[in-house]
Amino acid sequence: MQEKRQLITIKGTRDGFSLFIDDSCTFDTALKELKEKIAAARPNKEDPMVAVTVKTGDRYLDEVQKTQLKEIISEENRFTIQAIESDVIRKADALQWKEESEIKAVNRTIRSGQVLEVTGDLLLIGDINPGGKVVSTGNIYIMGNLYGIAHAGSGMDQNAFIAASFMKPSQLRIADYISRAPDYESSGVYMECALIDKNEDKIIIDRLKRLSHKRDHLSSFERRMKNG
Amino acid sequence: MGEAIVVTSGKGGVGKTTTTGNIGTALALMEKKVCLIDTDIGLRNLDVVMGLENRIIYDIVDVIKGSCKLKQALIKDKRFDYLALLPAAQTSDKTALTPEGMKKIIAELKQEYDYIIIDCPAGIEQGFQNAIAGADRAIVVTTPEKSSVRDADRIVGLLEQEEMDPPNLVINRIRSHMMKSGEMLDIDEIVQVLSIDLIGIVVDDEAVIKASNDGEPVALKSNSKASVAYRNIARRILGENVPLQSLEDEKGVLQRLKKFIGMRT
Ligand SMILES: Nc1ncnc2c1ncn2[C@@H]1O[C@H](COP(=O)(O)OP(=O)(O)OP(=O)(O)O)[C@@H](O)[C@H]1O
Ligand SMILES: [Mg+2]
């Protein structure tokens, strides 16, 4: 008789527990073994809660399967799922991901009354005139003058930033933060970037050089690889 | 085959009608065949500025509706054989004028005239769409005021969506002492924001107002600064390379203007 292979394994790592689900058997078989394993552990109410990262290898889980997993690795069994990580993603998700992390280069002037919206990072070669507006889900890089409105991280990405050769904006927006120009005439700044300062809980403007200290993952793509 | 040029601005009262009348007159002075079209239905002015209001019998809406022939509606200028005006309607239905109607009229006028200069109403509504419909190129008029430049920028954005050569810029009603003191936007700033080629600057000149009241476009008078400015714009339309002169007392500005002219050729 063939020796029974372990379909479910748990390992302690630096970042907590990882629960590996073998990716060569059927999902039902894996679920069955998972149930047995957890039942065998016979957790009770007094035990501390264990957070696990589920790793599914080359298996893609749909929403139904994820729900099934969550039912078993549940609080009443003194487990919580921190994240479900798979080495594979669907083509549609990959394309969307690519779309969201690409840099879109645009070469034109955004004039009064015009709005330019992009998914991903925006590289604008040209000016944003007073009354003009650009919106991106990622970062905004402007090789030109920003006089109008720039909105970075429009999909609620608070790590997004706005960098410009020159900026004297009427408004800056990052995720759901807004800052507007002072009512008095100000002079504008060269080679600076705007980003959210978590401590001050507002948008601040700093020299471009300082960006490397504050954002270790410049592109949206790097951020996604790291944070999912 | 003639060329149709629309004079537009977005903001009202910045000098579209004055510019249209004077550029047309200046081109006529240079022996070009010119037809002016007033598309500001309900608020026509061009006939007054040209001193031709008493001669109006038919107007552009009559032509569109077929109540008269195009030739019958054209008013011949008092001073030039080949300067004509197609006046706007003062009372009739605004919606009669359409982009298609304009295109037809302009195509017909191009057979006979070298330049068709179209006076556009303020705003970006239907009247604007009609005025630009048959035009080959546009002249955008602005004054050195923030709101006027903002509207000009909006207009340039809309014109860029049309199949048209990039527009040219006229900065009107410049008061050099205010520019010097920084109370007015300076020419550099305006050209930089709008990033289109400057074709003329016109100072704020009392002679313009007097001339308009007399029904004699200022371009006919040789002695005023505005007159020279309008005639220079006409020469540049004809392709001549004329340095902008109006602010001669300001050396710095003159240098910068030369730079802009250099960029055009
Ligand atoms: N360079 C100038 N110097 C002095 N006055 C001027 C100058 N240009 C225009 N004006 C005056 O400004 C007023 C408005 O000019 P005009 O009627 O040409 O503007 P417009 O843009 O056609 O206005 P609207 O939008 O109402 O059609 C007029 O009284 C005119 O005489
Ligand atoms: Mg007018």
What is the fold's blueprint, element by element?
The complex is a heterodimer of chains A (228) and B (265).
Chain A: E1 8-13, E2 16-21, H1 27-41, E3 50-55, H2 63-72, E4 79-85, H3 91-101, E5 103-106, E6 115-118, E7 121-125, E8 133-136, E9 140-146, E10 149-152, E11 161-167, E12 171-174, E13 177-180, E14 189-197, E15 202-207, H4 211-214, H5 220-227
Parallel strand pairs in A: 2-3, 3-4, 5-7, 6-8, 7-9, 8-10, 9-11, 10-12
Antiparallel strand pairs in A: 1-2, 11-14, 12-13, 14-15
Helix pairs in contact in A: 1-2, 3-5
Chain B: E1 3-8, H1 16-29, E2 34-38, H2 46-49, H3 60-65, H4 70-73, E3 75-76, E4 83-86, H5 99-110, E5 115-119, H6 126-133, E6 137-142, H7 146-160, E7 168-174, H8 176-180, H9 187-194, E8 197-203, H10 206-214, H11 225-237, H12 251-264
Parallel strand pairs in B: 1-5, 1-6, 2-4, 2-5, 6-7, 7-8
Antiparallel strand pairs in B: 3-4
Helix pairs in contact in B: 1-11, 5-6
The complex binds adenosine-5'-triphosphate and magnesium ion.
Label this structure with key terms:
heterodimer, A: 228 residues, alpha/beta, Pectate Lyase C-like, 2 domains, 6-stranded mixed β-sheet, 5-stranded mixed β-sheet, 5 helices, B: 265 residues, Rossmann fold, 8-stranded mixed β-sheet, 42% helix, binds adenosine-5'-triphosphate, binds magnesium ion
Describe the model.
- The complex is a heterodimer of chains A (228) and B (265).
- With 228 residues, chain A is of the alpha/beta class.
- Chain A contains five helices and 15 strands.
- Chain A has helices spanning 27-41, 63-72, 91-101, 211-214, 220-227, and strands at residues 8-13, 16-21, 50-55, 79-85, 103-106, 115-118, 121-125, 133-136, 140-146, 149-152, 161-167, 171-174, 177-180, 189-197, 202-207.
- A six-stranded mixed β-sheet of chain A has the order 5-7-9-11-14-15, with no helix packed on it.
- Chain A is elongated.
- The model of chain A has no long low-confidence stretch (mean pLDDT 88).
- Chain B has one domain (3-260): P-loop containing nucleotide triphosphate hydrolases (Rossmann fold, 3-Layer(aba) Sandwich), CATH 3.40.50.
- Chain B is built from twelve helices and eight strands.
- In chain B, helix 1 crosses helix 11 (225-237).
- Chain B is globular, with a radius of gyration of 17 Å.
- Chain A binds chain B through residues 109, 111-114, 127, 129-132, 147, and chain B through 146, 150-151, 153-154, 156-157, 160, 193, 195.
